Amino acid sequence: MRVYITADMEGVTGLVGAEDVQMGGRDYERGRVMMTEDVNAAVRGAFAGGASEVLVNDTHSSMRNLLVEHLHPGVELVRGKPKPMGMLQDLDAGFDAVVCVGYHSRAGALGVLSHSYMGHEIEDMWLDGRPMGEIGFAYATATALGVPVVALTGDDVACAEAREWGHELRTAPVKYARDRFAARLRPAEEARAAIEEATAGGVRDAASGSRPAPDTAPHTLAVRWQSASVASQLAGIPGVTISPDTEDDRTVRATGDLPGLFRLFGVFVNVAYALTGQAPYC
């Protein structure tokens, strides 16, 4: 059993504010410890569930957040950026299960540190007309590769969003949102026990269940930006157009297979950062 763990930071145990998760923030170093411990809980769960190999991808911001020297010794780590496939770098059809650790709800949701990839530059995203954020995009892309997403950890809003994409996946809510920068926290030991249990159960589910059929059909990605300038620049990429069925000039769309759209979206984000230079939670 090969298990892939994609690890974000906003949905980690105990973290609620920008200074917990932004490099240079007063509580960022503490946040790195908390993130590492949540990932280690998921790794323990993966091995308990029958994994023979675990690969972890550090996916938050600089993608250099996890404390390597404190990470479970039985895993390999994908660290740093740029990565062509970003939050799913090195995921392929050879894996048997995906686990999402520390994930958060999409832009516009009243979840802890909610956003979609960029703090407020991305207002909305859709896949084939269905609203989505980082959870939906990861779920759809992994599934298209034929790899099931079996577990997700984050706040209760993120967990509910994940179950909308895959009712069968297991979730571990580590905190309960009270607003975008406030939450009721589960005790750390209890939260990590829940992460370990959900991951172990999800990996066992993957071992005994059927895999999703690989999906090579074309899909349509649409992204509404806060800035028309970003949309205008992205429209220069072959195959990317300003969406013709909206009243604004800030929504771009592209059609293709899901792994390809996921990689293309990474280019979108790089262009947007170059144009705006905005911090994630302005």
TrEMBL record:
<dbReference type="InterPro" id="IPR007035">
    <property type="entry name" value="Peptidase_M55"/>
</dbReference>
<dbReference type="InterPro" id="IPR027476">
    <property type="entry name" value="DppA_N"/>
</dbReference>
<protein>
    <submittedName>
        <fullName>M55 family metallopeptidase</fullName>
    </submittedName>
</protein>
<dbReference type="InterPro" id="IPR036177">
    <property type="entry name" value="Peptidase_M55_sf"/>
</dbReference>
<feature type="region of interest" description="Disordered">
    <location>
        <begin position="197"/>
        <end position="217"/>
    </location>
</feature>
<dbReference type="Pfam" id="PF04951">
    <property type="entry name" value="Peptidase_M55"/>
</dbReference>
